[in-house]
Structure formats: C-alpha cells, structure tokens
Amino acid sequence: MQVKRIPVGFNKTNCYLIKLVDTDGLLVDPGGEGDKIIKEINNMDISIKKIILTHGHFDHIAALAYLRDSLQAEVYIHKLDSEMLVDPSKNLSSSFGSDIETVPADHLLKDGDMINGFKIIHTPGHTPGGICLYHKEEGILFSGDTIFAMGVGRTDFPGSSTKDLQNSIEQIKNNLPVETVIYPGHGPQTVLEDFMNYYG
C-alpha cells in the first residue's frame, strides 16, 4: 500500500491518495485544488472510484464535486455529517465568506463498516459524524480532524462536543496498537505512541 499526502486549500488540509492493489486507489478528503489532486492521481497511475470523507467541513470537501464528476467516483461519508455536503451553514463555508454546496453522498457510513480493508471508526467530537479509517494489517489510521501530531480537533464549532471528542480519543488509545501510524487531516504524520505521550 502506498500513501500520498497532498496539502490543499487555504487551510493546508491533507488530502490523501491511497494506492491499493495494482491501479486501484482511494481518495480521502479532497479539500481543494482539484487539478492538483488530478495531477497526482495521474502521476501515481491509479484509478479512483471511491472518495471517502472523514467529516463534512468545507476545507475537507471543497473539491468534491469537481473530482466526483472528473473521476466518476462515488462519495462516502458518515450519515450524521451527510447534510454538510449540501448546506453551507453546516459545513461552515458560509462563516468563512463562501457558500460551498457540493454533491450529496452516494453511501452513508456507520461505525464498523469496511471499505477495501479499512474499518470505519465513528469518532464524533469535532463533528457529529467524524470518522477515522483504520487498516489493521497495514497498521495505519487516517484520523481526519480527530487527532493531530500535536493536538486534537477543535470543539468550538456548531455540532462539536468536547466530551464526545475525548471519548473518541480514548477509544483510539484503548483499541489500537501504539505503533499505529496516524495520517491526520492537517500537519505531519505521527504514531499513536507519540500522540499519547504528547496528549496524555
């Protein structure tokens, strides 16, 4: 498995390309700069038919409509964040001076679902429908805005919950191996042990 991190948009959101077997791949969080993402897809020589969103905030979905149409891919998001895709007030874009309405999801996720070997872990807190993607065999976790190398997701947005975020973090700490490699929604990758040493 090959992972390519592509920082995109004003907030340097981490968009990820995941090369699976042969030319099959997954796209996680297309937060902007669709042409840049397409270029990297071509460079990696992969076929993207699934776009997975860790949550519905605008800085993680801004290029979704363009890429869904360009790639003829299907969109996956947790059911509790699905309305964010078509509501600028809920995806927060209207609060930042733009109204981003993108495409509705093709598939609504729930905790425990599997996508190409990745287990969906529902991690509410930053948003009600935030998810992480965990691949046990590869020992990797795409954490969205739940946890970062040196911090955790904000909980001062509408729909956020500090208590839920704390519970989600405990779920990750208690159930994943400490050597798990974490690919967050912003900033550099880390490993769970280092995050635990930082966060406590």
Automatic annotation (TrEMBL):
Q: Which Pfam families match?
A: Lactamase_B
- Show where the Metallo-beta-lactamase domain sits: 12-186
Provide the alphabetized UniProt keywords: Hydrolase, Metal-binding, Zinc
Entries under InterPro entries matching the protein:
MBL_Glyoxalase_II, Metallo-B-lactamas, RibonucZ/Hydroxyglut_hydro
For activity, the cofactor(s) needed are: Zn(2+)
Q: Which GO terms describe its molecular function?
A: hydrolase activity; metal ion binding
Q: What is this protein called?
A: MBL fold metallo-hydrolase
Q: Which organism is it from?
A: Iocasia fonsfrigidae
